[in-house]
Amino acid sequence: MKNKIRDLREQKGMTQEELAEFIGVSRQTINAIEKQKFDPSLPTAFKMAKLFGLPIESIFQFEEK
Predict the structure, then answer these.
(1) Residue 2 pLDDT > 80, yes or no?
(2) Which residues pair with 61 in a beta bridge?
(3) pTM for this predicted structure
(4) CATH number, residue 32
């Protein structure tokens, strides 16, 4: 699943560690999500959407493989 997490995080001036702490996951999880190696859980996706003030579908784009 494609996402805009890295761009959005950098626009807010946040580190991966800061985002991870706010969302309640590890920095490694944020890194994996940003590199599109891991899809976040629905609660995590909702927390990110709330933090960035955007709908989930504008942050994450589903791709069929």
Answers:
(1) yes
(2) 2
(3) 0.90
(4) 1.10.260.40
